[in-house]
Predict the structure.
Amino acid sequence: MARRIEVPGPVGGPRQERVAAFKLGLSAEMLIAKGYRIAARRWKTPFGEIDIVARRRHALVFVEVKARERIDDAAEAVTERGRRRIVAAAELWLAQHPDDAGRNISFDVMLVAPGKMPRHIANAFDASR
């Protein structure tokens, strides 16, 4: 009787972690081109992860990167639960980085889809929603 061998993940294709890292890096590069300085990438907290924390002049930006096959699908993937998680993580960032407390805070979204330029949506949501 022949045994079936299971092979994890696609053979010969890039690992999902590497693809996600590439998309995150592409998004960060777009922010850098707009004059932002990246303070952190994939900043982990007990509430969840903030994909990118960036500064520009008097602004502090918390960026959620969403990658899907279509830009519209990426936009729909930013859920209320996800927004609450990012806001909670941002509050922890501010507690740990008191010098940032006086900055103008925004919550941005970077939408990524294959073959498309990343779309940066500034002030995509606020902490009160």
Summary: The first strand starts at residue 37 and ends at 45. Residues 1-13 have pLDDT under 50 and may be disordered.
